[in-house]
Design goal:
Strand content: 15-25%
Largest sheet: 5 strands, mixed
CATH topology of the largest domain: Chitinase A, domain 3
CATH architecture of the largest domain: Roll
Order of helices and strands: EHHEEEEHEE
Low-confidence stretches: none
Helix content: 25-40%
Number of domains: 2
Number of helices: 3
CATH superfamily of the largest domain: Transcription elongation factor, GreA/GreB, C-terminal domain
CATH class of the largest domain: Alpha Beta
Distance between the termini: 48 Å
Shape: elongated
Structural class: alpha/beta
Mean pLDDT: 91
Length: 166
């Protein structure tokens, strides 16, 4: 069995202003708070001699690698993303950052916000701009019907509201 994994399709380079703040806060927390604490623990553990059976040293070094990897990712991602923090001139259409209320065939309403891949949080109703639903929504108007397929299942919705405020 090979460890090879095909490269992932790159996510869209967009992020909301709130999402950029969250990524910067995470980067600051990892670099200024967590990494110095773990480094101190590893330093103290290294002074205790045999490192091969020293749990603090082994797990501390592992955590440092995880932190450094995440810091590299966040630094590169923040350099590459485009922060979208303006409301579009045409608020009657669905664009990045919109809150969209949809009605299904049974009359049930659901509300989603189209955000960047780094902000994805279904518990808040945030969906990635790269998702099949968001791709079906982008550029549509109020009262348009959309259809998309997810996991082989077809879904139909009617756009009943579009807004761009929190």
């Amino acid at each position: 069995m090979s460890r090879y994994r095909p490269p992932r399709e790159p996510s869209s380079p967009y992020i909301t202003g709130e999402g950029a703040i969250q990524l910067r806060d995470e980067l600051r927390q990892l670099w200024k708070v967590e990494r110095p604490q773990v480094t101190a623990v590893v330093h103290e553990a290294a002074k205790n001699g045999d490192r091969s059976e020293n749990g603090d040293y082994i797990y501390g070094k592992r955590r440092l690698r995880e932190i450094d990897s995440r810091v590299r990712y966040l630094t590169n991602r923040l350099e590459d993303v485009t922060i979208v923090d303006r409301i579009p001139s045409n608020t009657e259409k669905v664009f990045f950052g919109a809150w969209v209320t949809l009605e299904d065939e049974e009359g049930k309403n659901v509300c989603y916000r189209i955000v960047g891949a780094d902000e994805l949080d279904t518990s808040k109703g945030y969906i990635s701009v790269d998702s099949p639903l968001a791709k079906a929504l982008i550029g549509k108007n109020l009262d348009d019907k959309i259809a998309f397929t997810l996991h082989g299942e077809s879904h139909d919705y009617l756009i009943v509201d579009i807004r761009y405020s929190g």
